[in-house]
Design a protein that fits this description.
By secondary structure, the chain is of the alpha/beta class. About 35% of the residues lie in helices and about 20% in strands. The protein has helices spanning about 25-35, 50-60, 85-90, 110-120, 135-145, 160-175, 185-195, 240-245, 255-270, 275-285; strands at about 10-15, 40-45, 65-70, 80-85, 95-100, 100-105, 130, 150-155, 180-185, 195-200, 230, 250-255. The chain has a six-stranded mixed beta sheet. Strand 11, helix 8 and strand 12 (about 250-255) form a beta-alpha-beta unit. It binds 2'-monophosphoadenosine-5'-diphosphate (ATR). It comes from Thomasclavelia cocleata. GO terms for molecular function: NADP binding; shikimate 3-dehydrogenase (NADP+) activity. Its EC number is 1.1.1.25. It catalyses: shikimate + NADP(+) = 3-dehydroshikimate + NADPH + H(+).
Length: about 290
């Protein structure tokens, strides 16, 4: 259905710095148009010292919602009126919505990842999950899997940081999920944990430019054919690690569905409508099954 910009059009925004690489305007404007929702979504490059004024200005203008990306996901929290449990545990927000002149913040990255698993018919509730990375993406995924009923998660990271240990402890305490952090250099533990796991996830940038031909897993002997293997990288579509997993007979998934579904979740929060997934997949160049 056609939607035209008019005096009644609502504004949604993407704020980050840099902002102009984002695929979010394509996704949301496609979905608004398809569903005949009288709204537009625009990207704004906002530097950190302008963040507070931006949120104040957005509220004054009645901007209905926004996605927040680097470097503002944490720094925006003091300027919001309320945040979700997931945002509190992650200390990060990627979606805000205006309700009763108040901005409510939440994070949809972890939900996006879990929805992408659902499309593959992979479950998080059965067995142990092993993941690599302790950055923003890892935190969002780990916290959401714990909130959604995962029983045991082992996180490997190159660096062991106090801040991340605290996030793990708080998440474990609130959800009952057993979460442990181990150094990535402990390859014999990594081999054993991968052997015992149902799902393995890379959340680091290892495998994309400038670390294109690298993998967090040393070789394909670490994988077993029953292991489901996800990489949140989507460019390249098959990372070196995913190729190793394929060689070992594993089912694999890259990060393009997570990107899609984190957006679909924001869209749902703003409009109460399901994003027209197949249309948006076409716009993003994702294969429609
Ligand atoms: P994002 O928001 O995408 O998660 P991030 O917060 O910068 O990005 O986190 C990047 C993650 O990739 C971290 O876990 C980082 O490990 P460190 O905490 O040790 O820095 C991981 N990472 C980046 N380069 C890496 C490399 N060469 N080997 C192993 N891990 C790497």
């Amino acid at each position: 259905m056609e939607s035209r910009i008019s005096a009644m059009t609502s504004l949604y925004a993407f704020i980050a710095s840099p902002a102009h690489h984002s695929k979010s305007p394509l996704m949301h404007n496609c979905a608004f148009k398809e569903l005949g929702v009288n709204s537009v979504y625009l990207a704004f490059d906002i530097e950190s010292d302008k963040l507070k004024d931006t949120i104040k200005g957005f509220k004054a203008m009645g901007v209905k919602g926004a996605n927040i990306s680097m470097p503002h996901k944490q720094n925006i929290i003091p300027y919001l009126d309320q945040i979700s449990t997931a945002s509190r545990l992650c200390n990060a927000v990627n979606t805000i919505i205006l309700k009763d002149n108040k901005y409510y913040g939440t994070i949809t990255d972890g939900i996006g990842f879990i929805k992408s698993l659902e499309e593959k018919n992979w479950s998080i509730n059965s067995n142990k999950i092993t993941m690599v990375g302790a950055g923003g993406a890892s935190t969002a995924i780990m916290v959401q899997m714990a909130l959604d009923g995962a029983k045991e998660i082992v996180v490997y990271n190159r660096t062991i940081r106090e801040e991340f240990i605290e996030i793990i402890n708080n998440t474990s305490k609130e959800t009952g999920c057993l979460i442990t952090l181990k150094p990535l250099s402990d390859t014999s533990s990594l081999r054993q944990d991968m052997q015992d796991s149902y799902l393995f996830i890379n959340t680091t940038g290892v495998g994309m430019e400038p670390m294109l031909n690298q993998s967090v897993v040393p070789d394909s002997s670490y994988f077993h054919p029953d292991l489901k293997v996800a990489d949140i990288i989507y460019q390249p579509a098959v990372t070196k690690m995913l190729q190793m997993a394929l060689d070992a007979g594993c089912e694999i998934m890259n990060g393009e569905l997570m990107l899609l579904y984190q957006g679909a979740e924001s869209f749902k929060i703003w409009t109460d409508l399901e994003m027209p997934i197949n249309k948006v997949k076409k716009v993003l160049g994702i294969e429609v099954k």
